[in-house]
Amino acid sequence: MNYDDFESLKFSTPSDGVLLIKINKPETLNSVDLRGHRELSEIWRVVGKDQNTRVAVITGEGRAFSAGGDLGLIEDMTESYEAALNQYFDAGSIVNELLALDKPVISAINGVAVGAGLAVALLADISVIGQDVKFTDGHLRFGVTAGDHAVLAWPLLCGMAKAKFYLLTGDFIDGREAERIGLVSKCVENNSVLPVALEIAEKLAKGSALAQRFTKRALNDWFRQALPAFEHSMALEILTFLGPDAKSGLKGLKEKTSPQFDPIPPNGTMI
């Protein structure tokens, strides 16, 4: 693949060695359909092979980073085993390809980030967020297990106590709190997110590429140690997508009402 093959992403080179990637569906807050989700997993291998790129910056077009999977994709996952299985592999690829890429990645979190978009935003090596930007992992608000990246990354980034609190409640976090607890690298004024991210990228692009890549590779061993927990969470996420709570969550999302979840597991069986 090359950059021309991507439909949901657009590319530019604001400075020497820096590739700017924009998730480009602003009319739906950069939500991702099946192709968009897959492209977020495939882009990192292309970046890795691009000899002109030393640092990648990813952000969203318009006022959002990414609102996550669109309603059509979510509905397919609640009804189709094949669709759910596709997302299991694609979501896994987003994480694994980001970990495998040696080049630094910087996320400029300019607006709401959910789902696959949040995975990319928080698994970037350096994350810059606007002080008033809000995000949530949101899986449990929808009635499914916190999968994607959360079980892998959040305990390492902000500690187990905060990870459990925010993942179990689904509460939103703003940029100031995200920086305070360590979920992101840097919180800045809302209109400075991309400029600051590009400034950091330009600084890295002038540094020792080999030293940076080896440092990133070694640091990512912490994430690799947690990959069994990530695989477990992804399997459980797909399992819950095929259950009744996800359908209730989808109904609530469509109707903009609070979903009605069953507080007792099927058949009254406690797991």
Number of helices: 13
**Structural class from helices and strands?**
alpha/beta
Q: Could you name the CATH topology?
A: 2-enoyl-CoA Hydratase, Chain A, domain 1
Mean pLDDT, all residues: 94
Assign a percent range to the helix content: 40-55%
Structural descriptors:
alpha/beta, two-stranded antiparallel sheet, 271 residues, 2-enoyl-CoA Hydratase, Chain A, domain 1, six-stranded mixed β-sheet
Please describe what this structure looks like.
The protein has 271 residues and is an alpha/beta fold. The chain has one domain (3-255): 2-enoyl-CoA Hydratase, Chain A, domain 1. Helix content is 52%, strand content 13%. The chain has 13 helices and 8 strands. The strands form 2 sheets. Strands 1-2-3-4-5-8 form a 6-stranded mixed β-sheet, with helices on both faces. Strands 6-7 form a two-stranded antiparallel ribbon. Helix 6 (150-158) crosses helix 7. The longest helix is centred in the middle third of the chain and has 20 residues, at 81-100. It is globular.
